[in-house]
Design goal:
Elements lengths: L2 H22 L3 H21 L3 H26 L14 H20 L17 H12 L1 H22 L11 H6 L2 H4 L16
Helix pairs in contact: 1-2, 2-3, 2-4
Length: 202
Amino acid sequence: MSIDLVLFYAFAAVLVLAALGVISVKNSVHAALLLVLCFFTSAALWLLMQAEFLAIALVLVYVGAVMVLFLFVVMMLDIKSEPIREGFIRYLPVGVLVAAVMLAEMLALMGIRGLTLPAPADPAAASGNTSWLGNALFRDFLLPFEVAAVILTVAVIAAIMLTLRRRANVRYEDPAWQVSVRARDRIRIVKMPPVTESGGAP
């Protein structure tokens, strides 16, 4: 059994256990940390399959942006099902465990980097999957790629329009009204005569 196959089974076991932890733990912050571990382990599996672009995209987009933002939102919401204001130390053991597993996975991937990997069967794939994916997206499948981009843009605009609709008994912001407000309409200066402690004018 080769070393990359051993690492594949090890990463797959970590991925399954972390995914089970995401849906089984009661603490939402712990679930988010385990989901970060799921994404990172999936990226390690992509690297084992020599899909470097997909692995880096998974780490940068999901681990580096989406999950960090999700963690901030979860910790700021102060969910009522959890004790309020428990502090940072409560989440430290799970965070250290997740970081240790991620470090072990990175060291394992760096260890097999020096091993002789099998040569790609397709000579066109010898330049790497990143260049192949770029050629496929922007040369062979340019029209479907642009259509997908337009569909996603329309979906974003539709989501914004549905969110900004006016509903009864709901407070909303009107940027046009805020910009058009004049200072003299918001502040009124009133001149009053001074009054002494006895109640009369000085």
